[in-house]
Amino acid sequence: MATKLPKVPVVIVGMGWVGGIIAAELTKAGIPVVGLERGKSRNTQDYYHVHDELRYAARYELMQDLSKETVTFRNTMKMRALPMRTYGSFLLGDGIGGAGVHWNGQYYRFLPYDFEIYSKTVERYGKKKIPENMTLRDWGITYDQLEPYFVKYEQMAGISGEKEVPPTVGKMSVPYPTAPMKKSPGMKLFEEAAKKLGYHPYVIPSANLSEVYKNPDGVERAPCQYCGYCERFGCEYGAKADPVVTVLPVAKQTGKLDLRTHSNVTQIIHNGKKATGVTYIHTPTGEEYTQPADVVILAGYVFTNVRLLLLSKLGEPYDPKTDKGSVGRNYAYQVNGASTSAFYEDREFNLAMGAGALGSSIDDFNGDNFDHSDLKFLHGANIRFTQTGLRPIQYQPVPAGTPKWGSEFKKATIHNTNRVLSVTGQGASMPNRYHFLDLDPEYKDALGLPLIRMTFDFEDQDRELVKFIAQKTKDIADQMGATKTEIHDSIKQYNIVPYQSTHNTGGTIMGSDPKTSVVNNYLQMWDAENVFICGASNFPHNSGYNPTSTVGALAYRTAEGIQKYLDKGGSLV
């Protein structure tokens, strides 16, 4: 029988970026918070002298243990879903800081178009432009409404970026607080080529600090060393903004945060109208606890947030057959696959050095920055050249036609290691009626609870997008002075391998209609007013960008909403 603990004002499930931001804002306001994290504790000392590619990048030291809990996957409802046994398509973080520890730090605000995508698409092209099963939704909030919260995140994290932004992105009321990252030779080639073609290149805004920075909370951090160990690694310098070195110390210093690790939440307790708390298991001992609370905040990864609602029978599960219900609706991914490799015979680059967010990009073919009238897809992609640090075990660049193993492969790999630059497109993922999340009827986790099941595949929209964007990457690469270029312009059926992107979105989407969304624009649940759900699971679609900036901005706004709710109660909209 579960041990019942004393009631608290707020309990947060998951202590990554979302949980850390909300905990910091609430505790600074004097509100006691219990933070429940199912993984272990973590600090920067854990990363000292651990540039170990095998341990972290290949064997996934920072990731969730798939033997205890995983995701099952199928392309269509007619298929039997099977568990993801080893990591491939995406990586699920574990422990304090979550995926905020192993991210690259690439920081992009979503476009104004994204937040009103349905309205703006219909306004420009008419309803017939939207395919029958594409479930586009406005977000219930505009870019201008969210803009001040982007600023809050940027000031906290010390985002490094150019003072003037191009006309292809949303306007900024306050410049980035630190200067942009250094420009590598490859970045300069990309920018020169893009400008020749009439595009608007800019240095990628970065959560890898370009200089010493002290944020408004008094947290001071050192600048990036360009070591190339960002993605899949924690930063031993603290130069990469993550929850462990920014918001969590602030929350702890207030004395108002009770942070409990190895605490795996299994259920939201509720009466059908309001939550009364959560149940969790302390995994080292197997002991079960009930934590009563006035407010319950789900701040986990996409799959965690959706799964907890479904396990708790809170909210109406989405049914793709009837297109009714909301929990699990509008799962979206990221559409990669459009790229061009530029091979140089007479020039070498130092590609081992870099940073997770070191690069330049353009948005001339992102969102609705270009005319889609005669195109067979909506939205677009951010096109970029990045120098994130190419490590020796997982990086083997060879031209097409090279044997996959043997002496010729080794010779080509050694020759090309510092002679290949890649121009890539990261495409938006539009929602589809038959892309969703639900509970798997067959497979269970180590506790005997059903796993989350993902039903997803690439559609014609995605294939057309990749074909179009790939040609744009080749146009740029052809201007970069390479000996030859090779285009990659097609994607086929989605598979859980190989690695593609950790940018999963949807399942608890926000909106203005309770029938087709889970939360309002404060991320307050329609079906339980004292439950707030925050994270990329709120996105009704995924943009051509990395999601973290928008997740962070929404978290700041949600923290503000929670304080209003604690003061007055009721619906916030």
UniProtKB/TrEMBL annotation:
Keywords: FAD, Flavoprotein, Oxidoreductase. Signal peptide: none annotated. Residues 441-555 form the Glucose-methanol-choline oxidoreductase C-terminal domain. Coiled coil: none annotated. GO terms for molecular function: flavin adenine dinucleotide binding; oxidoreductase activity, acting on CH-OH group of donors. SUPFAM superfamilies: FAD/NAD(P)-binding domain (SSF51905). Residues 141-332 form the Glucose-methanol-choline oxidoreductase N-terminal domain. The keyword Flavoprotein applies. Belongs to the GMC oxidoreductase family. PANTHER family: LONG-CHAIN-ALCOHOL OXIDASE. This is Gluconate 2-dehydrogenase alpha chain. The lineage of its organism: Bacteria, Bacillati, Bacillota, Bacilli, Bacillales.
